[in-house]
Design goal:
Helices cover 12% and strands 32% of the residues. It is elongated, with a radius of gyration of 28 Å.
Length: 749
């Protein structure tokens, strides 16, 4: 079991930048820390094994061990305000869409002091019905409950009022859509003996209950699963008619003086701000990134883009397992000295036989380069898969791989510690898809030596450790290279790529923003050369948070291989307003970028390529120097035993492959576990598996670009796992080396 774990505040740094590391250890005593440059992360005994270079730095030393906790669960917080100081009578109301009403107590809206037990909290009780809790701050608590459980995934108007003069409470639980023989409506008016003090000294809170503090951190409990729309707070007990009058966007003039807060979640959707339309301007912030741009109670289905009718997207979807920042305290930091080689680095921490690597990239100073060859680490894809639970949660995992899944200690840890956050392949505890992911937490799946459950004969073959096969080969070939992240490309655009002539991709650049696409397209148009050493790249369109670095969003809209699907009306990114889903559905299929695009996947055994007539064209003679005409290409490798495997791309002129492209080789003999991707299928039918369909193949593609550049695509995730075979002396390594060396030659194509 994991005993030590950490994360950093940055993923990419330049010389003189400072990066901070946060560590939690379950063991007693001191832990050790040191800096390493990671060269090869795959521990497969059939390969070169783990490789690192120890780097002398100020990080090296021993540090006191301590346990740092993660508190998952989202809510929205409005700081205490002078206008709330003497609040006696009140009305609190909202429109809610509960998704797990039967899970136990959940906060909806309230002003409760978790330290003194004073205030009020409207929420869901153990029965699944609405309840108002009142506290006098001296240990006295009263509660009025509806006694009827609410239906999951149905909209309700909920409200409670308290008259301090009479001690009368009114409680309303009203479904917006009635059903025959299903009565969940409640209206209660009853006196309570308890008196709520006016000076509660607490924030207004939505979707949770205030539970006090620990050190500098505010704690929350009773997190709500579901949507909240148009919450309101009044300074007196409103009648039921008045509650109805203040439910809309326009508050009647006669009632405006009674309203303390009129929150409008349809404003500031791309931010963490919750907007108050009342004159008090009791604006607040969301905590732990609940989902925004969610359809509200009044969504009609006539408009799918929230930017066109934001008033119909006034709901926020809260979850008890949302997470933005683990919030740990800093253990140590490093100011990057000048002169360190650009590459993939990690802070290595260890205690009592356990270790963790906290990876990051050191890049050259911005605007400069130490090589003409650039390797881009796909941190957006790492975030999409961060801490995924597919091996424990996905019932189809063994069918996808054609074998019994093998769980590693890291998988067991993640299964038992859901507070470490979810991946975009997981579902929340209420069944809704996870559309946000963050790097501000320990990411167990983004580590050297991590062994993925996916694949057949390979270990460490998915994401980071597959990508480190490439850096290991570059080192073995003594090809100088710089490393940056795709987050750098997103932030800086073409400027980040301009100093380079060759862009080498990772094995799996699956998640890509518009800014990244524009930058790489400009790089090609300026004569840059692209070496695509993977597959299933430029697949999902994503967005980054506009003000919170390291937070990405994916909306799994129509089509595509996906673990969940966006709800109707929720396919547009909240961060940018852009349509989500596949780049192919956005009119930019991957074939337009690299000549090939996702066509099939399978996770049991990898295969090989056979040369095609185009490979003998004089234009590509340089690629096959030293490779025989009848050689099978890549019938070996660390990932499934071959160079063509896991996910495969193919050329397709209809989808955008350049008309001058040459298909040099294609894979064959894939097993029946390999299947054509969903976006290619219009009608389910037999014959869509390996050995049956011509669409199940990987194409080796080459073409020249108008500005003297060129593109080479391997179209397989497994390609990089074959580079080290036979001590790096093999046809996969030879072809890759031939391509890169010619691409580094400034002579135009």
């Amino acid at each position: 079991m994991k005993r030590i774990m950490g994360y950093s505040d940055r993923i990419s740094v330049c010389p003189h930048d400072t990066i901070r590391f946060m560590v939690s250890s379950e063991a007693a005593g001191d832990y050790s820390a040191r800096l390493v440059r990671v060269i090869h992360g795959d521990t497969n005994p059939e390969g070169p094994g783990y490789k690192e270079e120890a780097i002398a730095s100020t990080v090296t030393g021993r540090y006191p061990s301590r346990r740092q906790e993660i508190h998952a669960g989202s809510c929205a917080v409005v700081p205490d305000h002078a206008c709330l100081a003497d609040l006696g009578s009140f009305t609190v109301q909202a429109l809610v869409w509960p998704t797990t009403p039967a899970k136990g107590r959940q906060g909806l809206a309230g002003r409760w002091n978790g330290r003194t037990g004073a205030g009020f909290a409207l929420g869901i009780d153990e029965s699944g019905g609405l309840a108002l809790r009142l506290g006098d701050g001296r240990g006295g608590v009263a509660e009025v409950a509806s006694g009827k459980p609410m239906l999951a995934r149905e909209w309700y108007f909920v409200a409670a009022s308290y008259d301090a003069a009479t001690g009368t409470v009114s409680l309303y639980q009203e479904p917006l859509v009635p059903y025959a023989r299903t009565d969940t409506a409640v209206a209660i008016t009853t006196p309570v003996a308890l008196r709520v003090p006016g000076n509660v000294q607490a924030p207004v809170l939505f979707a949770a209950r205030h539970a006090g503090s620990k050190g500098s951190r505010t704690l929350f409990a009773e997190h709500f699963n579901g949507k909240i729309d148009r919450p309101r707070l009044a300074c007196r007990a409103l009648t039921r008619l008045e509650m109805e009058q203040v439910r809309g966007d326009q508050i009647p003039v006669a009632l405006q003086s009674s309203m303390l807060g009129v929150w409008n979640f349809s404003k500031c959707i791309s931010s963490e701000t919750i907007w108050d339309d009342s004159p008090n301007r009791l604006h607040g912030e969301t905590f732990n990134l609940p989902a925004r741009a969610m359809t509200g109670h009044n969504w009609t289905g006539e408009e799918m883009a929230w930017t066109h009718k934001p008033e119909q997207y006034g709901a926020i979807h809260f979850h008890d397992d949302d997470l933005h920042d683990a919030g740990w305290e800093v253990d140590f930091e490093l100011t990057i000295p000048a002169g360190l080689k650009s590459g993939v680095y990690a802070a290595h921490v260890a205690i009592d036989g356990d270790e963790d690597f906290i990876p990051f990239v050191i890049r050259p100073p911005r605007g400069t380069a130490t090589s003409k060859l650039l390797f881009v680490l796909p941190t957006a894809s790492y975030l999409a898969y961060a801490n995924e639970h597919m091996v424990t949660d996905a019932p189809l995992a063994e069918l996808l791989t054609g074998q019994v899944s093998t769980m590693q200690p890291a998988d067991m840890f993640l299964n038992e510690h859901r507070e470490y956050g979810l991946s975009c392949y997981d579902s929340h505890s209420d069944g809704s898809g996870v559309c946000y992911s963050t790097r501000l937490r320990p990411i167990v799946t983004m580590r050297p030596k991590y062994q993925s459950w996916l694949g057949g004969k390979g270990s460490g073959l998915w994401q980071m450790n597959a990508d480190l096969h490439i850096t290991d080969w570059l080192e073995a070939e003594k090809l100088g290279y710089d490393v940056i992240t795709d987050e750098d490309v997103h932030d800086e655009g073409y400027t980040a790529l301009a100093p380079y002539s060759v862009f080498v991709t990772s094995t799996h650049h699956e998640y890509w923003t518009k800014q990244m696409w524009t930058a790489l397209d400009a790089f090609k148009k300026h004569g840059g050369r692209l070496v695509y050493t993977g597959a299933n790249a430029w697949y999902w369109r994503i967005a980054y948070h506009p003000t919170r670095p390291g937070v990405m969003e994916v909306r799994r809209a129509e089509g595509g291989i996906r673990a969940w699907a966006a709800e109707p009306g929720e396919a547009y990114h909240s961060f940018t307003g852009e349509y989500g889903g596949l780049w192919r559905r956005n009119g930019l299929a991957p074939q337009r970028m690299a000549g090939s695009g996702f066509t099939a996947q399978g996770f049991d055994i990898s295969s090989y390529y056979r040369r095609k007539p185009d490979s003998f064209d004089p234009r590509v003679r340089f690629i096959f120097e030293g490779v025989g005409a009848e050689e099978l290409i890549g019938d070996f490798g660390l990932i499934g035993g071959g160079a063509a495997g896991l996910e495969l791309d193919r050329a397709d002129r209809v989808l955008g492959t350049a008309p001058n492209a040459l298909v040099l080789a294609s894979s064959e003999n894939h097993t029946g576990v390999y299947m054509v991707v969903l976006e290619e299928i219009y009608i389910n039918s037999p014959g869509l598996c390996g050995g049956e369909s011509d669409l199940v193949r990987a194409d080796l593609v080459f073409y020249e670009t108008p500005a003297g550049g060129a593109v080479f695509a391997t179209s397989s995730i497994a390609w990089a796992g074959s580079l080290s075979h036979n001590n790096y002396n093999n046809n996969v390594a030879r072809i890759t080396g031939n391509v890169i060396r010619r691409f580094l030659d400034p002579a135009p194509f």
